[in-house]
Design goal:
Length: 279
């Protein structure tokens, strides 16, 4: 099992401290989000994800850095692909890119666009990811789609990595089709769902993803499966919580668990848990 740490820091001191901790402890990846504001509390500090990752990429040496997840609601696929290549260079080939359709009404409000119906959300995600995948592969040919268009593009320099890992967030069936079509990895999270409900839903989603991959002549095992411990999944609730999550979700096929940085009152549990796991 691989482990990632997701941090949405309020200050650079906090961001720098957690980056050093993640590398020292032995986490495999360091992630941040892509929100213009905190979805529930606008007074909570939020920084721009790609810019924070650039700083992490320049000040870490071993750990992968990634965006989990780039928000389709207010991102341009062309600009995001260029940012991804730049971050890959700054990190010397340690960057990973997650993409998702956005889930908060505040995303649309801040972007100045009305909420999209479910069918449009899925269609936009599909076209967005397809564009990013093409551009990162070096195909900068013109695109005129239902939602996005660009001409006279260029993708130089090429990424450091032969392929920047492309991760797609998906719970719905239509989004899983996007994963099967273009993604190197799939990320899912419980959100408001009860843990037991999410666990059984994850099994069904894995089966659906396997079937969709086979329909596209892809080996299901080539798509990495990432669990974002969020909502009802609380890895720092006690010293045994992360080992329990690891065993339970590894057994159904997950390859990686990404945990949010602990709150101040969870720091002691965090230190015990990662020590026991020897990540």
């Amino acid at each position: 099992m691989r482990y990632g740490l997701k941090v949405n820091p309020a200050t650079w001191d906090e961001a720098s401290e957690w980056a050093a901790t993640a590398e020292d402890v032995g986490f495999d990846a360091l992630w941040t989000g892509d929100n213009i504001r905190h979805p529930r509390d606008p007074s909570t500090p939020v920084h721009a994800g790609p810019e924070l990752l650039a700083a992490w990429a320049a000040t870490t040496t071993r750990i992968s850095v990634g965006l989990l997840i780039a928000n389709v609601v207010f991102r341009s696929p062309m600009l995001l692909a260029k940012q991804a290549v730049t971050l890959d260079h700054i990190s010397a080939g340690r960057f990973q890119l997650g993409v998702g359709a956005g889930m908060w009404p505040t995303d649309h409000a801040m972007a100045g666009v009305p909420p999209w119906p479910a069918k449009e959300r899925s269609a936009r995600l599909d076209e967005f990811v397809r564009i990013v995948d093409r551009l990162l592969s070096g195909d900068a040919s013109d695109h005129d789609g239902a939602y996005y268009s660009y001409h006279d593009a260029a993708m130089s320099p090429a990424p450091v990595q032969q392929r920047i890992p492309l991760i797609v967030a998906a719970n719905a069936s239509a989004s899983l089709e996007v994963v099967a079509g273009y993604a190197d990895a799939w990320v899912t999270f419980a959100g408001q769902a009860a843990e037991e409900d999410f666990y059984h839903a994850s099994i069904q989603r894995m089966r659906a993803l396997d079937r969709l991959c086979l329909e596209r002549d892809r080996e299901p095992g080539t798509v990495r499966r990432i669990l974002l411990a969020y909502g009802s999944l609380q890895p720092w609730s006690d010293a045994d919580a992360l080992p329990r999550l690891t065993e339970r979700y590894r057994d159904i096929g997950f390859d990686e668990i990404v945990c949010y940085a602990p709150k101040p009152d969870e720091r002691g549990t965090f230190e015990k848990a990662v020590s026991r796991l020897k990540v």
